[in-house]
TrEMBL record:
One Pfam family it belongs to: Ppx-GppA
Gene3D superfamilies: 3.30.420.40, Exopolyphosphatase. Domain 2 (3.30.420.150)
SUPFAM superfamilies per record: Actin-like ATPase domain
GO molecular function ontology, one term from the record: pyrophosphatase activity
Protein name: Hydrolase
Superkingdom of origin organism: Bacteria
Keyword terms of this UniProt record: Hydrolase
InterPro entries: ATPase_NBD, GppA/Ppx_hydrolase, Ppx_GppA_N
Residue ranges annotated for the Ppx/GppA phosphatase N-terminal domain, each copy included: 25-296
Amino acid sequence: MGDAVAAIDCGTNSIRLLVTDGERDLDRRMRIVRLGAGVDRTGRLDPAAIERTRVALAEYREVIEAFGVSRIRMVATSASRDAANAADFHGMVRVTLGQPAEIISGTEEAALSFAGAVSGLGGEGPYLVVDIGGGSTEFVRGGNTVDRAISMDMGCVRMTERHLPTDPPTPEQLAAVVRDVDGQVARALAHVGAGPATLVGVAGTATTLAGIALGLDRYDSARIHHSVLPAAAVAELAVRLAALDHDARAAIPVMHPGRVDVIIAGALILQEIMRQTGFAEITVSEHDILDGIAASILR
């Protein structure tokens, strides 16, 4: 057993922690902090969102210290790349965590997601990994390593804020999401290619949809990990979720409270990806950028 390391992924919607010794996970947790709330509209991070993130990060530092972690890597992605007042966020991280966060490019974000997603799948691919985040979606194609990757500004938080002002949304609002996503998916696939591969989905949209499709009475990572979600089920869930109001979606057993208001946009993004690629199914992985970050420390 090696020394424990800590990986922290701070995205647009959530901040997550993984403590591992390379052989087993010692702690894995998530807090929905919505750091990117309003960034698409204002270009700035909301001070309340920075404070929510600080509270979660303070909790994570306690966990990290309890495990005697030797090395930490915190990666900050879409929202903190885009914001005009990102310096406020980074100052908070230095004070709270005791070290800076790394702002990584969309390409590096994609590579880390790929490394985490394909670990444990077996075989050599090719794989096409899609990581639907809050502010962006990464598309990564490769075998043992990444061949091509691209990051598109079409996450579930960004699309919800841009196009879905009412709950439940109107048909016109749903159509606006599809139009926005449609062009971005086409550009992404033109870059990475849409040829034969195993389609792999990571992050909260894919895992939540898989949990609903499996009919789980609670969120069960072991059941969801490496489950297969048919394209027809994704399309059915997109329609079903869009017809439900906030309270009805919140009552779904596997639905995290912080995902209730953005799952419709996430489902539409995944539906369009599957429609344009023509894949009949997607393999859902609970391992993603967080596992890729941890692996990068352990190497």
